[in-house]
Sequence to fold (652 residues):
Amino acid sequence: MDDNSSSILAAASSPSGAGGLGFITVHAPATVANLVCGFDVLGLCLHEPYDIMDVRLLDEAKVIVRSADGYPLPEDPAQNTAGAPLIEMLKEVDENTGFEVLIHKRIKPGSGVGSSAASAAGAVVAANHLLGNRFSKEQLIQFAMFGEKVASGVKHADNIAPCIYGGVTLIRSIFPLDIIPLTTPDLFVTVVHPQIEVKTADARAILKHNVLLKDAIKQWGNVGGLVAGFLKEDYELIGRSLEDFIIEPVRSMLIPGFDELKKRCKNAGALGGGISGSGPSVFMLSKEEKTAQDVAQIMADVFTHLGIDFHTYLTKINGEGVMVQR
Amino acid sequence: MDDNSSSILAAASSPSGAGGLGFITVHAPATVANLVCGFDVLGLCLHEPYDIMDVRLLDEAKVIVRSADGYPLPEDPAQNTAGAPLIEMLKEVDENTGFEVLIHKRIKPGSGVGSSAASAAGAVVAANHLLGNRFSKEQLIQFAMFGEKVASGVKHADNIAPCIYGGVTLIRSIFPLDIIPLTTPDLFVTVVHPQIEVKTADARAILKHNVLLKDAIKQWGNVGGLVAGFLKEDYELIGRSLEDFIIEPVRSMLIPGFDELKKRCKNAGALGGGISGSGPSVFMLSKEEKTAQDVAQIMADVFTHLGIDFHTYLTKINGEGVMVQR
Fold:
């Protein structure tokens, strides 16, 4: 893999192929999907962690995706979360062009903070930049959702949209695509990633196809409250709205210590939080940095006590999304 | 009934009982609950039509409710939508006080624009004014919901909250009560009331207890979109969010001509709309008065063609709610 890495980095300073202007590096950040009550429709973008992606224009219609870290990747780029979106993008490009992508994977796959979305979103934002930004953000999301389909079998945009737009985004609808960027609240986000495996496909499979109407009503009351809380900058309302009567009761069973963790974090002053995406990561929102630090300590205590390895991140909400390095 | 009417109006100018300060008249407006996607959680307040309610303080702990229009009312005030809330309020009042209410009913019961909520909300706002405004709006809603329970068997606040707060309100939760006043958009509202009977209790009974998760997801995407549309004053987003995959497909079967009506109104430029509350009234939102007039004409055409009597109202969103006449 070192060979791949050096060959691409060499291209960066080389006039060969698409030339010096044909190379770019982007930071593709982690994201928190669902935001407890907003299953499949809400997500927010984090500053940390992020993948680093080096993307080079090719003068032939092909897509190459390589890992800089030794992660095994499918040989067929159509089976790769970064490759599939680029193949879709190339269908809309007339000229004889392709992309070579080198991924420095810092967001652990399967952690529940949008690792696949970062690869997909980072690839299309970088490629679009190399093509002179000819595609809109909506089009980039359409391309990037092919990466999510590779990863989980389902097109969804609740990680991709905040990764591309930044901030908190509402995905009102997938078909047709209707993305509503909301805001970038000045909140601290503490995330813990316990080192247990929860596959997105499995986390979807355990959900019931039917829900009680009375629970659905509570849920859309909370979605309305959360959207209003973000737009009115009413942080207490955000906290009250972070409850989930449908998904969390089922999925939290896959995360040891979840109930205790959530209760202790809220007692310590966190506004609220829950499972990030399909888990196993758990996130908490806090108004103050000190609270967010206390929350990180509680997260560490809980998983240390359970004998489960973990990482914690203390970060803020990222209003920019995928960042093009100049 | 004329006798009752004159006895109360006489009290208005009489120094007897609670005296001249012990009498008040309020206008209690109609409301549109649900707003298509927001079943049980969203509602808005109209300027027209409204009930006129004369309320007088009594110096004994009793509640009397009378109709000025000859509508038959239950003798037991606890069985009346205005009486039940006042009985609840009196439980929180120490002094030996009661209320006599005369209702000039202009909002036709069973029309689906919050007739029972207007009686309940008007009664408690008037009574609270006579008591020196000692109760908060949240407390008034708690009292008024006892009127909705009398009317439909279920406590709900999606008419009462906008009737008391004005504008568009979100009821994030009933237990515990959490009302989020959103905004008063500068939109025209056209309402048609076809003279067919749809009882709230029946309209609730035909709903399924279970809904598909995939439909619930679309629904809370739309609730989020509608709340964002109101707060961002994005009228096109409001229009796109006014769709309902759960309630309208069932309830619209009770309203002849509904599908044609909705389609023609949207084609004429209405942002969108649907069943008001549990029906049979149908409402449409429009940006321009001319569009709202065209919509009223379409509504008239449809029900004339069907041979169904109807009333139409062309009004705006009322930011004040129940109005105390000075």
